[in-house]
Design goal:
Elements lengths: L2 H7 L13 H11 L11 E6 L2 H10 L5 H9 L2 E8 L18 H20 L3 E5 L4 H8 L5 E10 L13 H4 L4
Antiparallel strand pairs: 1-2, 2-4, 3-4
């Protein structure tokens, strides 16, 4: 994959083939994603890979704030990845005081970088992903026994795509960039 092509061609996938995704392939994706930059190289992203249908169904039913689209997305994907971050490291000093006035913003920023790296790596391996942000953090954390020092950052559906969505219209460069 040429990087620019991957950025432009990757899509949010909501329909998946029933084909299993091998542990080896998922490990290769995580291996690539772990190179995503992070605050002071803190590497706080964590990946909880859920292949067990009962656990996925539990998250779909009890951890999606009754958002039916996410229930369907989770149930249709062969794999669900819960992306978490170790809390209060990104953007914080060792004494847990914020380094900047952004507070937990850097933690979310690092999670977003890690998430996109994961999704682009998945695309390289012929897999589709969907990043979901509507979830009940406490319930998801309880279901997967997330350590207390981590926070759920996103849910990512993963599998072989059974659709090829078109790219949504993008804003013109003149609308999004200002040269000063």
């Amino acid at each position: 994959m040429q990087l620019i092509n991957g950025i432009k061609e990757r899509r949010s996938i909501r329909k998946y083939k029933s084909d299993k995704v091998s542990k080896e392939t998922i490990e290769k994706i995580i291996d690539a994603a772990r190179y995503a930059p992070s605050w002071k190289n803190s590497q706080t992203a964590r990946y909880y890979v859920i292949c067990d249908e009962k656990v996925k169904a539990d998250i779909a039913e009890n951890g999606t704030l009754n958002f039916s689209k996410n229930k369907n997305n989770i149930n249709s994907a062969p794999v669900l990845v819960v992306l978490s971050t170790v809390d209060r490291i990104s953007g914080y000093n060792p004494d847990l005081t914020p380094t900047t006035d952004k507070g937990e913003h850097w933690q979310s920023f690092d999670a977003g970088i890690a998430c996109e790296a994961f999704c682009l790596a998945a695309y390289e391996y012929g897999l589709g992903t969907l990043i979901m942000g509507i979830y009940d953090e406490k319930k998801v954390a309880d279901i997967i026994n997330l350590p207390e020092n981590e926070k759920v950052s996103a849910l990512i559906a993963l599998g072989y795509p059974d659709e090829s969505p078109k790219a949504p219209k993008r804003k013109d460069i003149e609308e999004i960039a200002k040269f000063i």
